[in-house]
Amino acid sequence: MTSVLQPPAYLTPQATLQISSQAPKILKSLRPSTIPLPYPLSLLVNTESPEKWQTYENLLLACLKTGDDQNAFLCVEELIARFGEDNERVQALLGVYKEALAKNDADLVKILEEYEEIIKSNEGNMRIRKRRVAVLKSLGRTQEALRALVKIVDVSPIDAEAWAEMAEINLEQGLYDKAVFCWEEALLVMPNAWNVHARVGEVEWMWAGATDDTKEKLRLVSSSLRRYCRSIELCDDYLRGYYGLKLTSSKLIELLGKTQKASSGFDSAGGLTAPPLPAVESLNELTTSKLSEIVRRGAAKESGWNGYNEAELIAARELLDRDTQNVQR
To answer: Does the keyword Repeat apply (predicted)?
Structure first.
């Protein structure tokens, strides 16, 4: 069985359903014995531990994702009984529970009002501020959500989560430059986050696809390629990094073939120029080989290669097949 202590964000839908189906059994195991024992024997049945309350929290989220509102409520009750209604983490989890049960926008507006009352009494409650942003987004009030995020980073400029959320909202609106800026602010907080480097590469790749200026497209694709290179430098065998590197290197070969060979160094504006064509071609070959290995060994679920997402493996295989067809033509 999948561990209930594993972060919910990294669980597959199947694993989440598996945990949720075991909710009654897990809840029963977490409750202390009802048989009173004298001290010091009572210490033997004391289940107070960080793991216990993390289990309650993760089980709550798993139940909400699968629609098991009854067991989710039992988790909320236990958390409130232990930490109290004024605990910031409990307030946020209770808010998540209420949001999940909301049937319409009117219910969400009521929850939003509750959040605003909590913030009035405690302006430093960042968890509730972030839940407020989530509700504003659900209501389609994007600009209000952005303003709320700006207030969060004004107070806490090292809040990488807030910068990331702001980046995604800007990206949804097609504001690529602002999205890249926000992600770069997040990287200042966690410079070794390989997935964030790859995400910046993805944003720049999308930005390049939205411009018709050949020079700007060349700059963006070159920058995207460097972001992906950094992501695989930080994380060996990172599928999304190699996938992006394959895309950008192939596109860069096409662009450099239509223009002069670029020389490594800095342009007049102080930015990095595109890498030389031979270097990009060599990188493309190495990337093709590595991506093929990941797809082959990941699909076979070899030992040490079985953690890849099936959909990502399929996408990588299709990219390689498409590249092979283009070469044959």
So the answer is: yes
| Long-range contact pairs involving 317-321 (C-beta distance under 8 Å, separation at least 24) | 319/243, 319/246, 319/247, 319/291, 320/246, 320/288, 320/291, 320/292, 320/295
Q: Is the bond preceding 13 in cis, omega lying within 30 degrees of 0?
A: no
Pairwise CA distance, residues 315 & 321, whole Å: 10
| Residues 102 and 131 sit within 8 Å (Cβ to Cβ) | no
- DSSP string of 258-283, one letter each residue: HSPPP-SSB-TTSPBPPPPHHHHHHH
Tokens in use for 37? Answer: 């024992």
What is the model's pLDDT at position 25?
Answer: 92
Rg (C-alpha) for the chain, rounded Å, is 25
Query: What gap in Å lies between CA 67 and CA 23, rounded to an integer?
Result: 12
The residue assigned the tokens 């209501």 is 139
- Under the banding of pLDDT at 50, 70 and 90, the label for residue 2 is low
CA–CA dist 124, 128 (Å, integer): 9
Q: Could you tell me which residues come within 8 angstroms of residue 47 by beta carbon, excluding any fewer than 6 positions away? A: 30, 32
Give the pLDDT confidence of 198-237 residue by residue, as tens digits: 999 999 999 999 999 999 999 999 999 999 999 999 999 9
Q: Which residues contact 80 (CB under 8 A, 6 or more apart)?
A: 90, 94
CB-side exposure of 122: number of CA atoms within 13 Å?
Answer: 13
Burial of 145 from C-beta contacts in 10 A (0-12 / 13-18 / 19+)? buried
pLDDT at 41: 54
Residues with Cβ within 8 Å of residue 184, at least 6 apart in sequence: 200
Flag whether pLDDT at 76 surpasses 90: yes
What are the phi and psi torsion angles at 165 (to 5°)? -65, -40
Least-confidence region, from 96-100, 248-252, 260-264:
260-264
Backbone angles phi, psi at 286, to 5 degrees: -65, -40
Residue 222 contacts residue 252 (beta carbons within 8 Å): yes
